[in-house]
Amino acid sequence: MKLIAVSAGLSTPSSTRLLADRLVESARGELAALGHTVPAEVIELRELAHDIANHLVTGFPPSRLAAAIDAVTEADGLIVVTPVFTASYSGLLKSFFDLIDPDALTGKPVLVAATGGTARHSLVLEHALRPLFAYLRATVVPTAVYAASEDWGSGGDEYTDGLPARIRRAGGELAALMAARPARAEPDDDVTALERQLADLRFD
Amino acid sequence: MQFGIFTVGDVTPDPTTGRTPSEHERIKAMIAIALKAEEVGLDVFATGEHHNPPFVPSSPTTMLGHIAARTEKLILSTSTTLITTNDPVKIAEDYAMLQHLADGRVDLMLGRGNTGPVYPWFGQDIRQGINLAKENYALLRRLWREDIVDWEGTFRTPLQAFTSTPRPLDGVPPFVWHGSIRSPEIAEQAAFYGDGFFHNNIFWPADHTRRMVQLYRRRYAHHGHGRPEDAIVGLGGQVFMRKNSQDAVREFRPYFDNAPVYGHGPSLEEFTEQTPLTVGSPQQVIERTLTFRESVGDYQRQLFLMDHAGLPLKTVLEQLDILGEEVVPVLRKEFADGRPADVPNAPTHTARGTAAATTRGATAA
């Protein structure tokens, strides 16, 4: 099994990356408790910004971006963290997922998370990120984690748990889905996959 | 192996002068480029077909007929002929007519085109793109092979006892390439009929080209036309050359940076690394082109895109001189070296006529 996190934070260091790291740690801990030692990798979209723009205009990915796309599509679980920009996920995050085959994430367990300056934007997770991954037919875990600036230094309130508890709950949900998923069959090479599509084509 | 050029027929401003040629100038330039191709010893000239600005070649057989009258050896082809939106009856007649005028120096490359709005301009529905390509081509083949056709399909009125005229020259239909960039269905269609497959690789990494051609070769054998290496493969490529590679890069960079098809994305260096674009000395172009064989095996046709990115006619003609005099003769020799004797030659009307006569003779005997 492999866990991949995608962070769309733009500054270095960024609180978006920080949240991604915390979520990875949580999910890996829960998976370890279930008896799975799972390697994880965080993909920083900032480092791929040029490649993403180039792919958009040329139609093919430079090799480093191709490797990132492969990592995301082959992952057994995905953590996606974005800063909130103008009432939604960042454009860079959307551009990256625009380059992924719409069928490639079908059924994949995904944990969505976001960071922002104020908690007033937290429903972005439900109104923007969750529909994006619903469209891609991924399985989005029930708990989406929003971290406003003030969350990093405070506990919960009367309405919800504090950030550490939400991170733990979301990580647990992702781990449970990943552990329950049947092992993947070895992926076919592209040509075999193409041939299967062609089997339905009949001429004359 | 055949070497030639293919053109999109775009009207693109020259970024170094800001000047945009008129449609008339561009059309005449395409003719000058075709005549130059013959003069410098190239084998093939292929024109695109487009029905919207900034492109001019909407009427390929008119243009190719004109070129046929002014050349002796050049094979006239297309890149591509729209099998989806052209009536197959008209394609059958236009290209058979061209065959007669050009004494057989004609083949064509079929494609689906990449401009969505062209479908309604010709009364078709883009959602039926693949189905149109299948039905139209199946009919086109019959029109060229059967003197009297009764036919009924989905996308056009039925034909009853219809004879497409003129009949193909010597009873040999024009050779057909199926051109594709990313659709495996087209590779399958080419393989199914045992036709040629042209992978227009100019904007794609070598790895993608290798996979597409591999698929075509495998399906070609699957459909019983021969061994994978018997399949007929063509590739594109685009180059800009000067004696010194630094001069080539310096001169081409402003064209690359501003061209609608190249500019404002990857740098010239990145694009060169990831696609067949080669900007440098003739020797670099030779070395790069020879690597194509490593990707796809011994192949039959190599077409270069030379009039790209708004280069002025004078420059394009200089490029063709270099291509014909310094590059292609070396490529002919190098590609012939180590080429197994049983790999088929590029198709020509004469060779196909002889093969057909042999088959008929064998059947009669």
From TrEMBL, chain A:
Keywords assigned: Flavoprotein, FMN, Oxidoreductase
A Pfam family the protein falls into: FMN_red
Keyword Nucleus: no
Transmembrane segments: none
Presence of the UniProt keyword Transcription regulation in the record: no
InterPro entries linked: CE1759_FMN_reduct, Flavoprotein-like_sf, FMN_Rdtase-like_dom, NAD(P)H-dep_FMN_reductase
Name of the protein this chain belongs to: FMN reductase
Domain named NADPH-dependent FMN reductase-like: residues: 1-152
Automatic annotation (TrEMBL), chain B:
Keyword Coiled coil on entry: no
Gene3D superfamilies xref list: Luciferase-like domain
Pfam name, any one: Bac_luciferase
Domain Luciferase-like: 1-297
Keywords linked to the UniProt accession: Monooxygenase, Oxidoreductase
Source superkingdom: Bacteria
Name listed for the protein in its UniProt record: Oxidoreductase
Biased composition (Low complexity): 350-365
InterPro entries for the chain: Bact_Lucif_Oxidored, LLM_FMN-dep_put, Luciferase-like_dom, Luciferase-like_sf
TM segment ranges: none
Annotated region (Disordered), positions in chain: 337-365
Cleavable signal peptide: none
Species this protein is from: Streptomyces gelaticus
